[in-house]
Every structure is written in structure tokens, then in C-alpha cells.
What does this fold into?
Amino acid sequence: MRMRRGGVLLTLALLFWTTAAFGWSFGVCGDSRDDRNGVFPRIPAAVRDSDMEFLLHTGDLERPGGTKSWEGFKAKTADFPKPLYVAIGNHELGGGTREEFARFFGLRSTSYGFTNKETRFIVLDNAGGALPDSLLDWLNRELAAHPKEKNGIDRLVVAMHFPPQTDSIFPHGTKSGYGDQSVKLLKILLRHKVDLILCSHEHMHAVDDWGGIKVIVSGGAGAPLVPFHKYGFYRIDVTRDGFRETFLPIKATSSTPSK
It folds into this structure.
């Protein structure tokens, strides 16, 4: 009887450890520029008051970009106590440079990586609407340096502003050849078994399957929306079976218009 009880306790302990290892979540949003409806400040507030561990913003923080605009963004997130990761978007380049963006947000570069628990995140700078070979080579090296199923890494996520071009997603404002560049990107992602792509730019919300890789577009953090879409962001739950997304709508209000 003691052996059985011990076996049950061991099983329960293993189940608890597995749940603890994978049972966590984070928020992802994008396109908060030109927020005239008080949408974006309510997103970090929602993440703050939840069990989500951090917020990832996939670009177009403010328009036109530059120190003054980014100071406004920082003011909106000044009381956010959790990690806030940002990707550079095309509107960041309207009034600033990549070097200024990285320096302002304390980044070593506008393409960078970080790890949260068993998941490696790579933030990719495609703010120019392109995926040049130099950027894809860097991504390939970065993924190779953090291989899946080694050194505690069990999940791989790539975040960037412009979505890739897929059979269902055709992002606007990209450079010539973006479709071919997206094919090159997909080959790299499949080679390294990337699980998830997070992006915005399109002022809408969408979930797509791209060759077995989930693509989530979350572009409703305050910028004008395409018809029939709502403001909001995604909660991403990391589970033993992968990633599970839940769209969380944010009610627009005109009480805090943007300047």
C-alpha cells in the first residue's frame, strides 16, 4: 500500500511539474499609433491585472516615430510592472531611425531575442517591408544558436511587424519580391521547427496556418481598424500541446484621445 501511495504521489508531482512548466501566458498586440479611442492604455492594464507574464508589442507604437513619439508611448506604459517587449514597425521609421529606436528602448539591435521559461522568442526587424538575405541569415544563425529541444528550449516564436505573405495573408506596403522572401523565411522556420509567428501591421485580427506554423496577426491596439474587426489583443497560453490564442476585445472610448 505504501508503494502504491508513493507511486501516486510521484505521479501527481510529475503532473504538477509539467503543468507548472508549460502553464503560463502572455499578451501580444500591435498598431497602437493614432489611438484616438483610448484603446492601447487599457491593454497593458489588462495584462497587468492578469496572470499574463509580459506584453509583446509588434510595432507601430506611435506616429511618426522618434524620441517625442516614443516618450508618449513610454508615458502610456509607465505604470506597467511587467516586461514589455517591442518590435520596430514601419511608422517608427517615419520620424526616427533604427539606431534611435534601439537606443531609446535599451535594445542591442532592432532584431533581438529573449527567453521566457522554455520558450525562445526572436524579434525580427522587417519594418522596411522586406526580408533581405542579411536578415534571414541572421535569423538562421539565431535559431541555430538556440535549437529546439536543447538547453531547456521547447518552443520557438518569431515576432515581427509585417506578416509574411502566405496563401491567405497579403500584407500591404511591402517591397518588391516580398513573396519570394517569405518563401525563404518559411524554409528557415520549418528547418528549425518554429511553432508560432506573431505580427501586426494589418489593422485586423487573424489566425492562419502557414505550412504547419501558426501565424497570428494582432493589429487592433488603437489604429483605425479594417471593417468588421474589433479593437483588442491576444492572450497566448503556452501549454504542453503548443500555443492557444484567445482574442480579448477592448471597448473603445473617446475619454483619452491621442495627441
The chain has one domain: 24-249. Confidence is low (pLDDT under 50) at residues 5-20, 255-259. The first strand starts at residue 24 and ends at 29.
